[in-house]
């Protein structure tokens, strides 16, 4: 690479949807001949892709912008917090440009102004699937932008707009390129995966000589033809999700659903303006498991939402106890600037929120430990993420990267395992988060 090549530093914050935005910007930068560098000192300009969903994410984004300004001096800001430019300018008036999420054109224009490109088509080669920020063997596949719901605690629609689905053939072609480039696991992400295609009236498109609807089930069937793991995130429990469970039982899609239930009290869910037939949730979970016993359900919950009574919280604990969800995250409610929930009466005192959060997580830790213990003695199909000393660090079908547990393969290095390898692991032990196992004969270990 020529020493005169313009150099861009990049900081990516936030959720997997934001990470996909970062990958698209990085790909365009690379196509135009920019070198992506890993340090502030080496960069001619720095792009910071921000998050702005909750207060802690806003603080992290503002800190990252400040650090980039202090270390480099030339900073371009994009992402969700970019929808609040006055907040960024107040804290950091020296930034060169501010744009919102998915506004790739504005980011590129700002980079061009600060650092004109010097493209050399003989040197600047980019894979046809673009540049990725994940390891080579897995990738996030974003199928839509925005959301049509107006949950009272959420400001995502004000940042990313209403639902805009990508045509199914476009998504399938991208997935095909990723798998051809070495991806073994596709993680489907959006704000509302279950609503995929509703804005396009489930328009039909051609791919591989067949007609496919821009619809969740058809997308899953198409992805199943690629031979990679397909993992579904951000799934609302609409009735048509039932159609996906048989695909999981048949091995076409990973038996894994990431469903943000958020609460179990009908009264609180109404205050949250959450969609779905919440009164029948337990029944549906039981029906899903009857069809696909291996189904893993991950979810997130909010405790201490405005108006949450002791009884509402007890209803939530009872749901968790009965549902036996496999993976659960929770956080205490905190006001988000611009959210409708801020106007709700009867806020829960902070000490009560924290006490409820601790009780919730203690119960879920017990459930998780018990469910993982049941897997001891079974054989689990796993995907290796890394090799660390003697261990191979892998994930089972029940584990999404970075948010779920791990499978520590004790003889992974001796077995010659490498990142991206699939292997069958006999589970020898567990704790409340992870599994421990061997690929070789336990009697030889």
UniProtKB/TrEMBL annotation:
Its EC number is 2.8.4.4. Binds 2 [4Fe-4S] clusters. One cluster is coordinated with 3 cysteines and an exchangeable S-adenosyl-L-methionine. It catalyses: L-aspartate(89)-[ribosomal protein uS12]-hydrogen + (sulfur carrier)-SH + AH2 + 2 S-adenosyl-L-methionine = 3-methylsulfanyl-L-aspartate(89)-[ribosomal protein uS12]-hydrogen + (sulfur carrier)-H + 5'-deoxyadenosine + L-methionine + A + S-adenosyl-L-homocysteine + 2 H(+). [4Fe-4S] cluster 2 binds at residues 147, 151, 154. Keywords: 4Fe-4S, Cytoplasm, Iron, Iron-sulfur, Metal-binding, Ribonucleoprotein, Ribosomal protein, S-adenosyl-L-methionine, Transferase. It comes from the Bacteria. SUPFAM superfamilies: Radical SAM enzymes. Pfam families: Radical_SAM (PF04055), TRAM_2 (PF18693), UPF0004 (PF00919). Residues 133-370 form the Radical SAM core domain. The keyword Protein biosynthesis does not apply. PROSITE patterns: MTTASE_N, MTTASE_RADICAL, RADICAL_SAM, TRAM. Residues 6-116 form the MTTase N-terminal domain. InterPro entries: Elp3/MiaA/NifB-like_rSAM, Methylthiotransferase, Methylthiotransferase_CS, Methylthiotransferase_N, Methylthiotransferase_N_sf, NA-bd_OB-fold, Ribosomal_uS12_MeSTrfase_RimO, rSAM. Its cofactor is [4Fe-4S] cluster. One of its GO terms (molecular function) is metal ion binding. Catalyzes the methylthiolation of an aspartic acid residue of ribosomal protein uS12. Belongs to the methylthiotransferase family. RimO subfamily. PANTHER family: RIBOSOMAL PROTEIN S12 METHYLTHIOTRANSFERASE RIMO (PTHR43837), RIBOSOMAL PROTEIN US12 METHYLTHIOTRANSFERASE RIMO (PTHR43837:SF1). HAMAP family: MTTase_RimO. This is Ribosomal protein uS12 methylthiotransferase RimO.
């Amino acid at each position: 690479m020529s020493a005169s090549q313009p150099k861009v530093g990049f900081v990516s914050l936030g959720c997997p949807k934001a990470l996909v935005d970062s990958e698209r910007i990085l790909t365009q930068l690379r196509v135009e001949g920019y070198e992506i560098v890993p340090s502030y000192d080496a960069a001619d300009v720095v792009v910071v892709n921000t998050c702005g969903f909750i207060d802690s994410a806003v603080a992290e984004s503002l800190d990252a912008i400040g650090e980039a300004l202090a270390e480099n001096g030339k900073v371009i800001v994009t992402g969700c917090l970019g929808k609040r430019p006055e907040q960024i300018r107040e804290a950091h008036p020296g930034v060169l440009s501010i744009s919102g999420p998915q506004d790739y054109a504005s980011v590129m224009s700002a980079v061009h102004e600060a650092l004109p490109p010097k493209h050399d088509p003989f040197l600047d080669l980019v894979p046809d699937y673009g540049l990725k920020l994940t390891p080579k063997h897995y990738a996030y596949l974003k199928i839509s932008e925005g959301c049509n719901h107006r949950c009272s605690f959420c400001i995502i629609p004000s940042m990313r707009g209403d639902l805009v689905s990508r045509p199914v053939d476009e998504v399938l072609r991208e997935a095909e390129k990723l798998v051809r480039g070495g991806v073994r696991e596709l993680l489907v992400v959006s704000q509302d995966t279950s609503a995929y295609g509703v804005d396009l009236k489930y328009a039909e498109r051609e791919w591989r000589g067949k007609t496919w609807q821009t619809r969740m089930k058809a997308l899953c069937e198409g992805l199943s033809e690629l031979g990679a793991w397909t993992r579904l995130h951000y799934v609302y429990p609409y009735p048509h999700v039932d159609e996906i469970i048989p695909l999981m039982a048949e091995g076409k899609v990973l038996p894994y659903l990431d469903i943000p239930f958020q609460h179990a009290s009908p009264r609180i869910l109404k205050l949250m303006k959450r969609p779905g037939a919440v009164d029948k949730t337990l029944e549906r979970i039981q029906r899903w498991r009857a069809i696909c016993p291996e189904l893993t359900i991950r979810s997130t919950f909010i405790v201490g939402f405005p108006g949450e009574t002791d009884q509402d919280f007890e209803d939530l604990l009872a749901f968790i106890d009965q549902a036996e969800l496999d993976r659960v995250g929770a956080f205490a409610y905190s006001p988000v600037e611009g959210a409708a929930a801020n106007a709700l009466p009867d806020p829960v005192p902070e000490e009560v929120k924290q006490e409820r959060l601790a009780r919730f997580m203690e119960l879920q830790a017990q459930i998780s430990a018990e469910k993982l213990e049941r897997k001891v003695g079974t054989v689990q199909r796993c995907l290796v993420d890394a090799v660390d000393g003697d261990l191979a660090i892998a994930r089972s079908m029940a584990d999404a990267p970075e948010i779920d547990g791990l499978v520590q393969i004790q003889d992974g290095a001796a077995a010659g395992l490498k990142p991206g390898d699939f292997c069958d692991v006999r589970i020898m032990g567990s704790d409340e988060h992870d599994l421990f196992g061997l690929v070789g004969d336990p009697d030889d270990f």
